[in-house]
Amino acid sequence: MTQNNSIVLEVNDLETGYGSIQVLWGINIEVRQGSLVALVGANGVGKTTFMKTLIGVLKPWRGSISFMGKDITHLESEDRVKMGISLVPEGRQLFYGMTVEENLKMGAYVRDPKEDTSEDLDFVYSLFERLKERRKQLAGTLSGGEQQMCAIGRALMANPKLLLIDELSLGLAPVIVDKLIDIISRIRKEKNTTILLVEQDVEVALGIADIGYVIETGKITKWGPAKELLEDDYIKKAYLGM
After folding, report:
1. DSSP state of 158
2. N or C: fewer beta carbons within 10 Å in the chain?
3. What CA–CA distance (Å, rounded) separates 173 from 181?
4. Side-chain half-sphere of 222: how many Cα atoms within 13 Å?
5. Which pTM was predicted?
6. Cα dihedral angle (201, 221, 30, 91), rounded to 10 degrees?
7. What architecture is the 1-84+197-242 domain classified under in CATH?
8. Of the ranges 17-26, 85-94, 182-191, which is most confident?
């Protein structure tokens, strides 16, 4: 796995919210090439709001977002995807009346129609053999774990430089989460994909991340090497029940 010091994503003093309600307060986050960064925190503290702002669904009130050295603060969502940012959204958000393979191919909609994406599809099927077996099955009939696999596969079909994953483990059995964690590690290794994982399961996220950020009530309260955060007394008491 190639890793260097170049900054892929830089978020400075980001603030936003809904209507008159502010949710994020002065968020600063940095993600470097080839790294896996985890943003962890309890439910309802602003993690999904942050992801929606990164992908362009929600507009920032203040601050800036830079991707590969370019200011994308006010860029439309589709243009961010074209640049190489892809999101696995909270709750999967598949097209349930379409087949697995149709859902996967939807992930490549921003790419050049003349571009051959068969190699990317083969890679997704190599990661998720279960999806290959069910490629003609309607996405709405899949189990929760299979739907999450499909959502990850769809995001990979955009051939992202930065993969955003919002709540990987939500509603899934531990054995499925373990399998998905292994697959995320494989994506990172084989594709050299930079990953930002947003997750309320602090132990899972910090267990595979290089760098971790802790968000509480819309503010970053701690950050540093993930292994050090796992050993932090406050983290142990507040999130790990130790």
Report:
1. T
2. C
3. 12
4. 20
5. 0.92
6. 30
7. 3-Layer(aba) Sandwich (3.40)
8. 17-26
